[in-house]
Amino acid sequence: MTDSRKAILVVSFGTSFHRTREKTIDRIEADIEKAYPDYRIYRAWTSKMIISKLLRRDGVKVFTVAEAVEQMIADGIRELIVQPTHVINGVENDLMKEDVLKRQDAFESVAFGDPLLTTQEDNLAVIEAVMEEFSDMTEEEALVLMGHGTTHYANAIYAALDYTFKDQGYSRVFLGTVEAYPSMESLKKQIRALGPKRLILAPFMVVAGDHAIHDMSGQDEDSWRSQFEREGYEVVCKMKGLGEYPGVRKIYLDHVKEAEKSCMESRSGS
Length: 270
Fold this sequence. Notes:
By secondary structure, this protein is α/β, with parallel strands linked by helices. Helix content is about 45%, strand content about 15%. The radius of gyration is 19 Å and the shape is globular.
């Protein structure tokens, strides 16, 4: 039975693509709701541009973080766990925390779950989840994952994870970013040295949305698909967001569990 005073706010960047949202963000939220039946589940997105687009195009209203917090206060929520579906501890995550902490005094307890890639254990669990999906790769293939990338110092996790894939024995896996480092130029150099015949491109993002459709698999000359085809590789695109991987969704659930534990510890210590 739901305790009307306890809530989990699931915070995502958001997407305007309904089909990929249903397979990713909706699935993560459903998993959390099933695992925590005594909590009320709320949704907020951090992209105001996507929120505005959905409202304008579809008449669908999604809360910003600040709006969700005000709604929860109005609903009488006293104990709050905030679980982001963000991949890294970057700008979006920092701003989300700021928005929640402005109203921290309205709650008896507030705890934050970690984004996907926070600890070394997370990194290894993500690698395992990804490789379960691509367990049938051949010696002629290489897997190229497209991360988002950011100017935030947390961007260093992408290069670290690329190294960790190889350190774990996956020499045919490469992780790059659209907007930062590792860049397409560094990917090209590394992949040339390996010399595969076929490349499998997949988004290293929670949803296979705008970046996956345009920057990764698009037909224009700047897309990753087009650039790699010009390099002479056969290219296959897998349009599957990380939120579709069961192993990735489990990591988010583990992070909620840790946040709930810290919530209970803070209550017992107060």
